[in-house]
Give the backbone structure.
Amino acid sequence: MQLSKFTDYAFRALIYLAKNSEENLTVDILAKNLEISSHHLKKVINKLAKTEYIISLKGRNGGLKLGLDPKEINLGKVLLLTEENLNIVECMSLSGTCPLVNEECKLKGIISKSLDEFVNEMSKYTLKDII
């Protein structure tokens, strides 16, 4: 399993904002310091700014800031917000993709349980834990 760049960039942006909370940061500054595409990061910031995780201030003294204390930003919730598709195998989202899949398919159940455990493990941590 591999998380999307979108989720990766969201975690990186939140970490950077938390570590540099005294500064007014722009998407361009973030992108440069994180060495990622400004274009892609704008999409990530836009999504996070629609939540309480990031505040986007307009104007001369504007910029990006964390909207919550790092101890209030749960990594599992960020993961679920930013990851559009956590289906590890095709049969988890599309029926009819495997002739062996039915209600008794044990593999699909094991994969689903493993994914739930991954999300639960991520949910045990906050942004504060990783900064």
Q: What stands out?
A: DSSP finds six helices and two strands in the chain. Residues 101 and 130 are 39 Å apart (CA to CA). The radius of gyration is 18 Å.
